[in-house]
Every structure is written in structure tokens, then in C-alpha cells.
């Protein structure tokens, strides 16, 4: 028998209990059925997936979840059930309750709002609400990149087609979920963003991209989310993969996808969840028993079986048979068990599971969440084009003119108060059914057809403009006589489309109406046309023949209310197109110039801190230094370094859109940082700041060269080596980037376990080098002379500051056999004033960070040994200061290999550049 480690309870020796933790199951119905009870009590089912078919209201959901947890508790489960839910917002919400659960825009709608902080708040609000009713795992965020955006079924469920933007908003959502105490599950690995649909309905869609192509695009958000360490689970899709290096029928059943790609290459250590194995293609091809075993063999920890009780029993039997047949080892079972239990420990407990706050909490937070919902929807509404200046309608139409609304018949989305009111009215009356009854799905009271939502949209439009409105629907039958008659009557026509790229009749109908309007305008009639895409912006984004086009990203009632406000002018449509659509549009505006102002500490410091927080949330995990950077990091107040900082700001809101830090000393002008709000990129803010900064530096007396990157303050030592986009940007801005000085911040993460490499001390002794530590300026003449002769002037000022801080800083000197100075380095104790200028030295409350800053070594044959000796002495001082981690900042390329041999690892890599002022003669 496998020996269990001490971290597992003896109960898990019973493999039936362990196997029960490896499946996640659901059922149809709003009450606990004998079947789901039997799975929990007798088969020890540890995870439940709830869907819209289980949920009627917040109160009912809280009661249902509490009952499920009580059953598990009484059945002897050591830990609560995982309760999972799809709650993506937009058109994908399993739980809706108009009184307590708020509706928010889809992922693409949130990205259109252009504010990652707003996406974080929406995610946190969503998770807080579902957590209140007992849900502890959200199946999200969606991390798919829409490589072929127009024809993919995910549509607005995904952020867009830009991998970095998908990463930014995916990580923001993930952080929101986590901060609300809910576990996260990225999906749909390796990608549902570019699927080819081939063959019959039994065939699975196929990924045809190579691994290299996937790595450059589709895998980027998954890799970045994993690198944060905050992704608890990964949902592995059921798609096939066909390329020269991989031929996989079902991704979630392939060890090439799960074990090799997800775990070994991307480094994911959390819970892998399979696609639902009840899918028809898998059942008919492999069978559920074998499929379940294959999923676990591939590396999945939780196998999903959505609702069929007989199939669920078959899957459990398959896992047991897999162990009996020695296809699954007990070690493999316990590996998955530990992962699942670790996730449960992080997101739930019996105290929390058995006593969810429920309605008492939801009623308190609902007003603020509703305001957030309204803001999110208003900010997401996007005007794609308005060539004829038709928006808002109250400025382009007279009140007495007739407005025609043409809407398609579409699949239903979760509704809100409208459906509720219709049902209540129906129950109170025995009269003949109204026309509204035709819009309600008979099997689900909380679902209303799109036509019903659009009917209310028409009424709201009529009320908002206080004018006459005509409304009818259209179908695949095209433009009928009724449509022609109404078009002739109306002055303005609003056509609604929903995924016209996949519902081609909508595109054809819209083009036909557009042609009619053009012909009628040519005859002298007023015929304005506004197209509203209520789902994908790709419907007419690239079709310039449609002069006015607006997108809402979903057609929930909240979205339609925001649309009415935008159409009628009570709010301004602020949204932007996702990904490359936005960038291609904004490229035309590259000559835009922004007002650049001097930085004012009193006015701008709060705005700069907000900007830095937004950048930290949007940055890749290896740029963690941004999390500890503040407005004060850039102000050094040094009499020998002239500093001038610049901002682009919104003078109305005081928000900073961009910031640039510059310094000047001894003929060298230095750009120390350029920041642009992630939601305001590609509109020339950075270019405006860069140009103003260069002009200011070049015009200073005696400027001979311009430097990009600075070690004092050490926020950006140059261009990050992992950001090719920034390098291209600076190259296009006039910089010669051929000859970089490569620098790094290096770290020993666990100083307590570090020891000097064998033989290093003996090598130093054989070289007859000696080291000492000095404090204060009175002993520092030789040190400052050495630094002045071998380093940049700002490094000299860093040393001068360190020597003045006698209580917290010192300088280690390295001397050769003859007593001459051959090297120096600054030593900082944790929390020293000097460390405040180097974000990499900020450890927070978790760990004390000792600093070893700016090693300066005179050129010579033994300079590598000098650097190693200085680092060794610095580490001893850091240990003496009780540091748990040591960071070595501003290390040149020549020393990295030798320091790596000592156990140092690169924390951040940089390239510093210095150019002549002649590069920018036009600014002189």
C-alpha cells in the first residue's frame, strides 16, 4: 500500500474517498435529488457544478448550497464541497436575481470600457455576490485569445484578439475573484480562440496552429496568469489539435497537452479540470469509463460530468477499474487529491460553507454594485463609427420625426425585472395571453427571448426621446413589404444585429436596408441609418459602407438601458474597440498631440500613485517592481541632480494619463521612466511625453548626451529586456539601440538557506584581496574618487547619499594586495531611506530585504572575483541585519555569470542606452 504523507488524513487511505474528490458533477433541477445526495453520501463526491437549471434566485441558491454542504458534512466529508459556477457576466450568468445579483458587461465589454481597475472591481463584486450564496469556485476568467475573432463562438466572452490585453484584463479579473475569497479557474486551455469546425456534429472542433504559433499568441495569457501564482485551477478544453508536432483528438485526454504543455512547459501546479466528458463526440468514440481514466492519466485532477446520473456512475466505476487494472497508480490519485484539497483549503472551510451570509450581505452591497454595473455598462458602449454625426439622436432628429427600430429574433439571454413583472402580471390575471407571453420560454421563467428585451428597448427609446417610434422584427426571410413601408415613413432607422458574422441573414438584411436608405437620400428624403451590434463588434467594424455603428457587447436589459442613454445623449459612449480593431483605428490618430505639464507634487502625487497601481495590475508578473513603486520613488531632492518630471492629465478629473521622470547631471540628460495608463495607449500620450522630455533635457546648458535608464532612482534601469514592443517604440522615437549596456537586478530569495560556494573564500584569499566596511563621508574620499572615475555621475550621487545614511547604509571596499581600491558596493539594511529609491528592495511585511547596490569595479584581470567578493561581504552584512532576502541592484553583464555561480538569480533584466543629442536635432 502507498504510504501517505503526514499531511493527509488516514481517511484518504480509502481510495473510494480519494476518487470522490477527483470528479465534479452536476444535475438538473432546483432541489436536491436522491441521485445527487447518493453521489455525495455514498460515492463521496467532493465538487458540484451549478448551472442555470439549478438556480432560481439568490435566496433559493443559498438554501440549496447550504443543504448540499450539510449533506456532505453529515456524511463525514473532511472538507466542504467545491461549489463551482459559470458567472462570466454579459450573456453567460448561471445565477441571476434582479433584487440581489447584479448584471455586468461581458469580458469584451469590460475591456471596451478601457479600465482594468474597473474590470477588477466588477470581478470582485461578482465573486462577492456568488460567494454570499455559498459558491467558492468561479469558472473564469476566460483567457482565450480570439485569433480568428470574426468566426469564433466565444465572441464577447473573450477580451479580444490581443494577447497582452487579454492577459491584462484576465489577471485583473482573477485578482478580483481572489480578493473576494473565491477560487479561480482559467479557461479554455490551450485555446478556444481559433477553432476550425469540420465534419459532422459529432466531430470536435480542431486547433490547427503549431505550438510555436500558439506560444506567440494563444498561450500568452495562460502563461502570464500562471506566473502570478494566483490561478487555482485550469479548465482544459475538449477540442482536437492537429499540427506537425501534435495530433490530439481531445485536449483534456492528452498528456501532451496537460502534463507536457500545461504543467512542464508553463509550470502550472494547480488543479486541472477536464471538459465535460458527457460530450457526444467523446462518448461515441471512446466511452465515458475509458475517457475518465484517460483524462486522469493525462494529468487532469477533476473530471467534469455535467448532469446524467448513469454516466456519472459509469465515470466513478471507470476510475476504480483504472486503479484495479493498474492504469492509474495510487501515487497518481494522491497527487490529484493533494491539489484539490489545497484549493479547498484556500477558498472554503466548514464554518464558511455551512453559514453563508446570504441575503443579509447581498442586500447591503446591492446598491453600490448596481451603481458599478451602470457605470461599467455606460463606459463599455462603443461608437465604432459616426461619419454622419447622427449621435446622439436628439441632436440629429426632430422630436416629431419617426424613428424605426428593426430587431432580429435571437437566442435568449438572462433577463431582469421585465420578465419578472410579466410573470407576476400573468399569474394575477386570467385574461387572454398578451403578446408578451409569446416572448417567454415556457420552461424557464427567468429567461426571456431577445425579442422581449428589444420590445422594451423600443419603449425605452420612445420614452427617452419623447417621440414616435416604430418597431418590428426581421428574420431570415429578408426585407418584406412591412419593412419597406416603415422605412419609407421613418426619418431614422436603427437596425440591431447580434453576431451577424455567424447569422448571415442579419448582414444581408442590414446591407439591403442601407442600400434602400442611400437611394431614398439620393431622391431628397431624409433617411439616417444607425446600426447597433448588440454582441460582437466585428459585425460591421470593418465595413465602411455603414457610416454609423455602435456596439453594446451584450443585449441584457442593463446593456439596452445604457444603449438608450448613449443614443439619446444622457450619457456619452466612452468605449473603445477591442485589440487590433482599436489599434488599427488609433494608428490613424498617431499625430495627435497631448498637453504636457510639469509634475506638481501636491496636485499630481495621488494621481501618479493611482497610475502606478493600474500599471502594476496590468504588468506581466516579472515586472513585480511596479507594485512597490510610489510617486515618492522618483523624487530624489539631490542638489547635484536636477530633476524635472512631466505629466499628461485630465484637468477635469485630475487623473494622470501619463508620467515621465527626467534628471540632469554633469552634461547627461536622463529619462528615468515613461508611464502611460494601460487604457490610454496607442493615442500618442507616450510620444508627447517623450518629445517634451527630450526637448527639456537638450535645452539645458551643457547637455552632451541623453541616457535612457537610471540607477538612482532605480525604478527603470533601462528598457526591460523582455519587452520587445518597448524597444521598437524607442527605436521609432529616434533612439539608436545598437549598443546597449546590459544590467540586471539579481536576488537570493531565501537568504537563510544560502551558503557560500565551496572554494570561493579560498580564491579570494589567494588573490590577496581584503574587504572592509565604512560609514560616513569623513572616510570616503577614496571611495568617491573611485566611483567618479568608474561610473556614471548619478551613481556617484547614490554613493554620497548612502554614506550620509550612517545608521542604515555603508560601503564595502575591496582592496588589492598593494592596498589600492579596486571595487566598492553600497550595503543597505531593510527599510533604509536609500532602499526607498529602489523598488526591488521593497519586501513589504512578508520578508525583510537587504540591499546590495551599484557594485563599481575598476577594470582589470580580477574584476569578476572582485564582484563576487563584494557580493559575499554584502550577503554577510544582510544576514547580520536579519534580512530574509537579498537583492543586488545594478549589476553589469560582465558580473552576471560569476554571480549566478554563487546562487544569484536574475530578478529583472534591463538595457541602458546612451545617445548623442544630435539624434534629435529638430528639438534643439
What does this structure look like?
The protein has four domains: 18-361, Alpha-Beta Barrel (TIM Barrel); 382-573, Glycoside hydrolase family 3 C-terminal domain (Rossmann fold, 3-Layer(aba) Sandwich), CATH 3.40.50.1700; 597-741, 3-Layer(aba) Sandwich (Aminopeptidase), CATH 3.40.630; 743-911, Gcn5-related N-acetyltransferase (GNAT) (Aminopeptidase). It is built from 30 helices and 34 strands. The strands form six sheets. Strands 22, 23, 24, 25, 26, 27, 28, 29, 30, 31, 32, 33 and 34 form a 13-stranded mixed β-sheet that branches. It has an eight-stranded parallel β-sheet with strand order 12-9-7-6-3-2-1-13, sandwiched between helices. Strands 14-21-20-19-15-18 form a six-stranded mixed β-sheet, sandwiched between helices. Helix 11 crosses helix 12 (309-324), helix 15 crosses helix 21 (557-568) and helix 29 packs across helix 30 (893-901). The longest helix is centred in the middle third of the chain and has 22 residues, at 359-380. Helix content is 38%, strand content 19%.
